[in-house]
Amino acid sequence: MFLIILKDKGEVYKTGFNAFNSIGKENNLSKSSDEIRIEAFKDLRISKICTAMKYILALTTDGKLYQYGEMDGFGKQSNPILIEINGKVIHIEAAEKFAIAVTGLAI
Predict the structure, then answer these.
(1) What is the DSSP letter of 21?
(2) Which of 16, 23, 18, 19 is nearest to 41 (CA)?
(3) What's the structural domain count of the chain?
(4) Spatial separation of the C-alpha atoms in residues 92 and 43, rounded to whole Å
(5) What span, in angstroms and rounded, lies between the C-alpha atoms of 47 and 57?
(6) Mean pLDDT score across all residues of the chain
């Protein structure tokens, strides 16, 4: 189990167990009780975070989507990767077997 913390200025922190690289491989810890900033997000302003058992989705204020951890089709990521999507993403959801990214205007 892990916890992802989104601070009011868009900074992202992690704590908990490191299974599936869910809190990042760069610290070489199996678990952490301290909040560890996800440095790969330091130049991004994150507006929403969604998590599943093995991965994390992060949405930026400018509508870009990043994935972190282990997700089918994207592999095991110890650093966030940009998921290329046509259009600005306005909403995200994460589940064990799938994820949802909504683009365009919500009705």
Answers:
(1) G
(2) 23
(3) 1
(4) 20
(5) 11
(6) 80
